[in-house]
Design a protein that fits this description.
The two termini are 47 Å apart. Helix 1 crosses helix 8, helix 2 (68-84) crosses helix 8 (336-360) and helix 8 packs antiparallel against helix 9. Helix content is 24%, strand content 25%. It has 10 helices and 22 strands. It is an alpha+beta fold. The radius of gyration is 27 Å and the shape is globular. A hairpin with an 8-residue loop joins strand 2 and strand 3 (60-66). Residues 445-451 have low confidence and may be disordered. It has helices spanning 6-14, 68-84, 121-124, 137-140, 151-156, 159-163, 319-323, 336-360, 395-411, 427-443, and strands spanning 19-28, 48-51, 60-66, 93-96, 108-110, 126-128, 131-132, 165-166, 178-179, 183-194, 198-201, 214-215, 221-222, 248-252, 269-279, 282-292, 306-318, 362-363, 369-372, 378-381, 389-391, 421-425.
Length: 451
């Protein structure tokens, strides 16, 4: 398979090519039939849906294994790791929380880690040269960004142009600049069958559940009757489990408060509406079936892991989305060559993020390690009616391609930062984090552990 070159990438970005597409088959690391665990949403519910597939006559039950948002975060994490290891030099804004006397050290948080990228409240509530970031000279530049002026974001946070951004926390509020995602990726389990999950714990000390645990004046647990039971969890308050002692009786995992969505463990009920009409001794009948989904409810046994016939990662990099961006220099008019160079850099950045993520592997969460059954292969979706063209691009080649694209853009005057823009958290932000950590520490004794 031919490797993607800078010339080929420039041609794709400037021409009628619609997108780069990559579809990768995945399987559980334990082999076919091994159970994997999807992410849970409100109330411990999985994101399930029916999807139409080209080789199936009927819609197929599918479960989301990694969402678009989560995939974007993983790609940014891969870029951050490459920056930390010295493999890449891309614009990064960082906030250093070290030395602020926090209960738990946070260290540095960067624009590749903040949920809303350069528009995140963490950056907004930090200082650059003693000024709130958005009131500094660099921060004020973000107020003027648009599709016709993407240069400030290119220079400060180009990933916002690849993975999307909404400047809703800036001075314009909901009217702040919006940039759609150009890179979209998700991982889906296909033809899913749902299992259950059990929890249990054997206490080697064999602490009995009939003992009452109290709280003393210092907030510590005690056996002396202070008339105040220890713990803030009503279900475990005053019990040894409030201080993480004692056995946990084997039980199924259940839906908790806030559960919403479909319960995949319970089959849908069917509603039948049947009508009969006679006319001239002729019998005519009609029927209507309607499937009624059963909602997940608090206290019901929850789905615990799935087995799937297959899993697939689908990545799409939209080139029309990049073609909407313009990069004027020094406040002047945009130039076609500069625009093409900037768009090429962003395309290379997206491809590099995907390649670095694949290099790190697909360990999505506890008990959800997936293994690619094939090498990463990109397809160029060219003119309508033409076959997709396959190209190869591993992580090292993607980094080299990005560096070449950045160098070409720099020769035209479009440059970006190669060293981090360093901010300091404001005193108010530090106080907020410290207060939150203190509250978390005070409430930490009421949780029951064990699996």
């Amino acid at each position: 398979m031919a490797q993607l070159t800078l010339g080929k990438l420039e041609e794709a970005v400037s021409g009628p090519t619609a997108a780069f597409r990559c579809r990768t088959g995945l399987q559980p690391a334990g082999g076919e039939g091994d159970k994997v665990f999807p992410p849970t949403y409100a109330g411990a519910v999985y994101a399930t849906e029916k999807r139409r597939l080209p080789d199936r006559d009927q819609p197929v039950e599918c479960v989301l294994l990694d969402s678009v948002q989560s995939q974007a975060n993983r790609m940014e994490e891969a870029l951050q790791q490459a920056v930390d290891e010295g493999r890449l030099k891309i614009p990064v804004i960082e906030v250093d929380f070290a030395g602020n006397g926090l209960l738990t050290e946070i260290g540095k948080v960067t624009s590749l880690q903040a949920p809303h990228r350069i528009a995140d409240a963490i950056l907004r509530d930090s200082l650059l040269d003693g000024k709130p970031f958005r009131q500094s000279e660099e921060g004020k530049r973000i107020d003027s960004v648009s599709l016709a002026n993407a240069t400030p974001l290119y220079e400060l946070c180009p990933t916002a142009l690849v993975f999307g951004m909404w400047d809703s926390t800036g001075p314009k509020g909901g009217l702040g600049a919006k940039f759609q995602r150009a890179m979209v990726s998700e991982i889906v389990g296909i033809d899913a069958v749902y299992g259950v999950k059990t929890s249990s714990r054997i206490d080697p000390l064999q602490i009995r559940s009939g003992i009452t645990i109290y709280e003393d004046v210092d907030g510590n647990w005690t056996l002396e009757n202070t008339r105040k039971k220890y713990g803030r969890n009503k279900e475990t308050q005053g019990k040894p489990s409030a201080i993480n002692h004692g056995n946990v009786t084997p039980a199924f995992t259940k839906y908790v408060k806030g559960a919403e969505g479909r319960d995949p463990l319970r089959p849908a009920s069917v509603e039948l509406d049947y009508r009969v009409q006679t006319d001239d001794e002729t019998l005519r009948g009609s029927s209507r079936f309607r499937s009624l989904e059963i909602e997940a409810r608090q206290g019901a046994i929850a789905a615990g892991g799935v087995t799937v016939a297959s899993a697939e990662q689908m990545v799409v990099l939209s080139l029309p989305a990049l073609r909407r961006l313009q990069f004027p220099l020094d406040g002047g008019q945009s130039d076609l060559k500069v625009n093409q160079a900037g768009r090429t850099v962003l395309a290379a950045l997206g491809l590099c993020a995907a390649a670095l993520t694949a290099e790190r592997g697909f360990d999505l969460r506890s008990r959800c390690l997936l293994w690619p059954s094939e090498a990463l292969k990109w397809e160029l979706l060219g003119k309508p009616g033409t076959a997709a063209e396959g190209v190869g691009l591993d992580a090292d080649a993607a980094i080299q391609l990005l560096n070449e694209a950045v160098e070409t853009a720099a020769k035209l005057g479009l440059t970006w930062r190669t060293e981090p823009l360093k901010l300091q958290p404001s005193p108010q932000l530090v106080a907020l984090v410290r207060k939150s950590q203190e509250l978390s520490a005070a409430q930490g004794g009421g949780e029951e552990g064990g699996e």
